[in-house]
Design a protein that fits this description.
By secondary structure, this protein is α+β, with helices and mostly antiparallel strands. Among the domains are: about 1-35; about 40-80, no CATH class; about 85-190, Tetrahydropterin Synthase, Chain A, CATH 3.30.479. About 55% of the residues lie in helices and about 20% in strands. The protein has eight helices and eight strands, in the order αβββββββααααβααα. The protein has helices spanning about 5-35, 115-120, 125-145, 150-155, 155-170, 190-240, 245-260, 280-285, and strands spanning about 40-45, 50-55, 55-65, 65-70, 75-80, 85-95, 100-110, 175-190. The strands form three sheets. Strands 3-2-5 form a three-stranded antiparallel sheet, with helices on one face. The chain has a three-stranded antiparallel sheet with strand order 6-7-8.
């Protein structure tokens, strides 16, 4: 082996030494890029929970809000919204007196956070259409049938409380909590509404007639009271008239007769006393 062969061998060894670390760095970099490409991190946002699936199987642990690690390829995380949501449902029912009733119900609900995995496993993400709406329909029909159409209006608060209690119990069995419940409105058939209007009109007319009768009765009582007062006044006046007052009236009458006398005595034939009206009475006094 001459000097040129030794030199070439040395260059080959140096070249191999240089390429080895680069290859290792490239391999490590490729692994890291591939690892990041597989997205091993998952972020759970505010008002959400993460359901962990191992090759599609739902796991017992539920991920809270924040950043979590997952095993690529093997694990998948499904985000479930656990914030309060609103649902409005229309329901048709019949009252206890067989009146058709259309109701509009609004509820605020949310998934129980710690049971998000159970909800996903048993219902999925479309729980409103699968569970909530049918439950509302059934509850509204069951509770409405306990009341007459008039009671649905006059006892609306009690009807709402009964519906909420029943619906809360039914949905909690599916790990869905009812936060608020309200009856937006009731609507009845046109014939029933006309009957209600006629009844209200009749009641108003009856109330007006009763008020008029009471007014007339009061006015009559007032007149009777006034007449009694006047009669009592006359009775008291008659009681106050005494014999002295009667004599005084006679004297006043005689005085008026004397004032009117012209001084000529009446002509009397056949003898007898000269009449003079009232003189004897004046002398007596």
């Amino acid at each position: 082996m001459d000097e040129r062969d030794v030199y070439r061998a040395k260059e080959v060894m140096q070249s191999a030494m240089k390429k080895g670390p680069m290859r290792a760095a490239v391999i490590i970099g490729a692994i890291l890029v591939g690892f990041l490409f597989l997205n091993p991190w998952v972020q759970i946002g505010a008002g959400e929970r993460g359901v962990v699936l191992n090759f599609g199987a739902v796991q017992d642990n539920v991920l809270d809000e924040g950043l979590h690690f997952r095993v690529p390829v093997m694990q998948k995380v499904v985000r479930m919204d656990v914030k309060v949501q609103k649902a409005t449902t229309d329901a048709a029912a019949a009252s206890s007196n067989l009146q058709d009733v259309s109701s509009t119900v609004a509820i605020n609900y949310r998934i129980v956070p710690d049971k998000a995995n159970a909800v996903y496993q048993s219902i999925g993400i479309h729980f409103k259409e699968r569970i909530i709406d049918p439950a509302v329909q059934e509850v509204v029909k069951a509770v409405t049938a306990r009341y007459t159409a008039e009671e649905l209006i006059t006892k609306r608060s009690a009807v709402s409380d009964a519906m909420r209690a029943t619906l809360t119990e039914r949905l909690m069995a599916h790990n869905i909590a009812v936060e608020a419940f309200s009856i937006v409105g009731f609507s009845f058939s046109k014939i029933f509404m006309e009957a209600i209007e006629s009844k209200q009109t009749a009641e108003q007319l009856a109330l007006k007639a009763q008020r008029d009768l009471e007014r007339i009765k009061i006015e009559a009582e007032q007149k009777i009271t006034a007449a009694k007062a006047e009669a009592e006044s006359l009775r008291l006046q008659r009681a106050n008239i005494s014999l002295d007052l009667i004599e005084l009236r006679k004297v006043e009458a005689n005085l008026k007769a004397i004032e009117k006398w012209n001084g000529i005595l009446p002509q009397v034939t056949g003898g007898g006393a000269v009449p003079f009206i009232g003189v004897g009475e004046i002398q007596k006094r």
